[in-house]
Amino acid sequence: MASVATSGKVQVMIYLGLISMVPLLPRVTFGGVATLVTMIYISVLFAVTLISTVYGAAYQRVILFPGYFHLIVVLTFAYAIYAARVLVTQEYSELSHVASRFILLLLAACFCHIFRTVSLEDLLGWYSIGAAALATLALYISITGATFLEAPRPSRDLGIVLPFMKTAGVPRSFGEQGIVVAIVLAFVLVFWSSLTKTKRVLALATVLSLQLTGQSRNMLLSMVLVIVAWFLIRSGAKVIVAATVLVLSATSTFLMEQVYPSLAETDVGSSIVGDGVLETNVTARFRLVDGATQLISNDPIKALAGWSHSEWLVVAPLGLENNIHNHFVALLIYLGVPIGILTIAFFFAVPLYRILKSYTRTSCASANRNSVFVVVSGCGVLSSLNFYEGFFSISLAIYVGLLWSMAYIDTSMAGRERAVTYPSWNAA
Question: Whose CA is closest to 156, among 274, 260, 284?
């Protein structure tokens, strides 16, 4: 029995170590050492999860066929159709995107398994440790101008010239950086009462540092929506209000397009938007999303199967821009409307709906807090995805895995104690 408990502690420590590494992982498409490191991480995560699922002891509460199993089966079948379309049309350059869909699905399932094994607060704490390491690296690069995998960009002018160069710390889209910021900020706000003063300061400093070095409007909007959602829920807002904020976050591209003309006329708004190429960068994203939605409405038959990335390059409104810069619209364009809607529903809409329903009737304070975290962080995540294609993001897989674990929790296991203890964030 002692050996079982020991192996359990070791395995959970491995889980926590893997979670803490996520914020530091560069995008897999960067190439070279960055791609190799990320692929090794994914392989190790798959191996550890598979071993624990097949050979896991009773204390892990491993479920071979959990409540979200049907989601994985349906999405796997849908992505197989997507793969068949790519092979039939001989769009072999699209195969990497096909692989990314399957890997993202498996990553979400792996993280879901981990979330069902270790407490959410501890996992978020260790994720924040990785984010703090990323913030430290970003500050060093931003201040010194050092090149780490890729060179930092010139500082943005936000009314004043910031004394930091623009960098994400590692090669990564600032949209994915917005997801990292949303998770850490929601964690410190929702779990504030159980964190020590030192850990609160560390987490808030991490968020501030990532924003100052990233200098991203996407990240700034993500932070604002997380704070607004937390304030509303903390003030006793009804679930319908939380649901409304989630919907607004998920459609923030279209909402920002409507308020942009008025925003750009104000001093604060014009400073945030910027001018010249920075302003063009904002308006171009609106045009790309509008062009994509118009493409679907103009050719609904073709929209059923979708367009490849090379086809989008030909029909894109800006000619040479092959990124749509909106995760949800990109799913509809590249996967086809039916598979795109299915992905949005099973990754986000259905789990969030189930969580909001359970949130209204739960009497367990800790479960309530976990549900609040999912909603608050979700506002920042969904907002970031509105300005970031995010076809493959490990931090996004973490959030989806958390959604599945919360929405399809095995109620027969509720209230049972773990047979082992593990390194706690609060004990650190």
Answer: 274
Backbone Cα Rg of the chain: 21
Tell me which residue of 240, 191, 130, 251 sits closest to 373, measured CA to CA.
Answer: 191
CA–CA separation, 117 vs 120, rounded Å?
9
CA 183 to chain centre: 8
CA–CA separation, 237 vs 226, rounded Å? 15
| Backbone phi and psi for residue 327, each to the nearest 5 degrees, phi listed first | -60, -45
What are the residues whose beta carbons fall under 8 Å from the beta carbon of 143, sequence distance 6 or more? 163, 164, 165
- For 305-360, how does the pLDDT look when each residue is reduced to its tens digit (9 = 90+)? 999 888 887 777 665 556 788 999 999 999 999 999 999 999 999 999 988 887 65
**Residue 412 — left, alpha, or beta (φ > 0 → left; ψ -120 to 50 → alpha)?**
alpha
Cα torsion angle, 266, 267, 272, 275, sign: positive
Nearby residues of 354 by Cβ (< 8 Å), 6 or more positions away: 407, 408
Q: What phi and psi values does residue 153 have, to the nearest 5 degrees?
A: -95, 165
86 to each of 26, 91, 92, 99, how far by Cα in Å?
27, 5, 7, 11
277-290 per-position pLDDT tens digit: 444 556 777 888 88
Is residue 71 within 8 Å of 346, Cβ to Cβ?
yes
pTM (2 decimals)? 0.87
Give the H or E element holding residue 333: helix 327-335
